[in-house]
Design goal:
The protein is of the alpha/beta class. The chain has 2 domains: 7-85 and 153-204 and 298-361, FAD/NAD(P)-binding domain (3-Layer(bba) Sandwich); 95-148 and 207-295, D-Amino Acid Oxidase, subunit A, domain 2 (D-Amino Acid Oxidase, Chain A, domain 2, 2-Layer Sandwich). The chain contains 8 helices and 16 strands. The chain is globular, with a radius of gyration of 20 Å. Bound molecules: glycine. Glycine (GLY) binds at residues 45-46, 48, 54, 210, 250-251, 294, 321. Residues 45-46, 48, 54, 210, 250-251, 294, 321 line the site of glycine.
Length: 363
């Protein structure tokens, strides 16, 4: 008979796996329940580690949390690489911010205006300066900047590495979808099931679909030197090189429920923007189209902490576009809460904000 574990983690995305690894390092017996169903966000995430570049809703608590995460990523990546022996594709060569046409400069400036006041250096570049940094950029690129501290990681390799690092410490992975907290017996139960979390604990988390396209250069030619955050005809797009000859084009933001079918319209929109920025991509092969479901909340902030009214149950979800970036700090804080009861989680992320005052007061 299987022993009741100290911790059961429901959901094997980057955050669940990171908490499992952290807890196992402290000597706890950990089980992770996960069924790899289409839409798992971190199976698709492009892996941009850029606190403000995707801060569509720049809440101060979230931005501060994201900056802390960014500062912690180099050490986390080094530690995870050493523990797993897996190269994470962690690139620290900065992000180019590119306005495609002259009319896109205002949109780009608006997107990045709130960088001021944060420790996110960004050097303005004109068209020549951009192409000096990235010769593959189109002649139409009108200006932008270079954000040296915005990094990139291969999120799918991070997942593999977290799994391997946990496995080496005895984490048990159970290939099963858990549909109710009552199905699992453990000292503590943590829900990290992303957009599917509401089926386990009642918080208003909704899926925001993101489609990505993976392109492959058949000639194996040199890839992009830097990640590129572009604005093309007012619409943002993100390009990142992978493994030398692949490029990820990301990502749509669609409110279409749990529909995980890639759409021709999204592929078309992503590729038009990608080719406008980097014309050579037109000759690349479409290697894959993928859809991930980001977990969003009404205030676009994470839900992290104890589940009210359910002793021993915890939740960590709602990281929306930032799950990969926030995974290390989220894992450290959740591990602290689970293991020592130490609640260092920002108050803005409390699960209690979604419960009626009467209900939480009586518990
Ligand atoms: N972090 C990637 C995205 O949400 O588009």
């Amino acid at each position: 008979m299987t022993r009741r574990p100290d911790v059961a983690v429901i959901g094997g995305g980057v955050i669940g796996l990171a908490v499992a690894w952290r807890c196992a390092r402290l000597g706890l017996d950990v089980h992770v329940y996960h069924e790899e169903i289409p839409g798992t966000a971190s199976a698709v995430a492009p892996g941009m580690l850029a606190p403000v570049s995707e801060a569509d809703f720049p809440d101060p608590a979230l931005l501060e949390f994201a900056h802390e995460a960014r500062r912690g990523w180099p050490a986390f990546a080094a530690e995870l690489t050493a523990a797993s022996g897996i190269d994470l594709g962690y690139a620290t060569d900065g992000l180019l911010l590119v306005a495609h046409g002259v009319e896109d400069r205002a949109r780009l400036a608006a997107m990045y205006g709130f960088r001021d006041g944060f420790d996110v250096p960004c050097t303005p570049l004109d068209a020549d300066g951009l192409r000096a940094r990235e010769p593959l950029l189109s002649a139409g690129s009108s200006g932008g900047g270079f954000a040296t501290e915005d990094h990139h990681v291969d999120a799918q390799r991070v997942r593999l590495a977290l799994r391997a690092a946990g496995q080496a410490l005895g984490v048990r992975y159970v290939d099963r979808r858990v549909r109710s907290l009552d199905e699992v017996s453990a000292g503590s139960v943590l829900v990290t099931a992303g957009a599917w979390s509401p089926s386990l604990c009642d918080f208003p988390v909704t899926p925001v679909r993101g489609q990505v396209v993976l392109l492959r250069d058949p000639s194996g030619g040199p890839g992009l030197r830097h990640g590129i955050r572009g604005v093309v005809r007012g619409e943002p797009v993100y390009l990142a090189g992978r493994d030398g000859h692949e490029t990820i084009v990301a990502a749509t933001l669609d409110h279409t429920g749990f529909d995980v079918r890639p759409s021709a319209q999204a592929t078309d929109a992503l590729l038009r923007k990608a080719v406008a920025l980097v014309p050579a991509l037109a000759g690349h092969e479409v290697a894959a189209t993928r859809v991930g479901l980001r977990p969003d909340t009404p205030d676009h902030l994470p839900v992290m902490g104890r589940v009210p009214g359910r002793p021993g149950a915890y939740v960590c979800t709602g990281h929306y576009r930032h799950g990969v970036l926030l995974a290390p700090v989220a894992a450290d804080l959740m591990t602290g809460l689970l293991v020592t009861g130490d609640d260092g989680i920002p108050a803005a992320f409390t699960p209690r904000r979604f419960r009626p005052a009467k209900e939480t007061a009586s518990r």
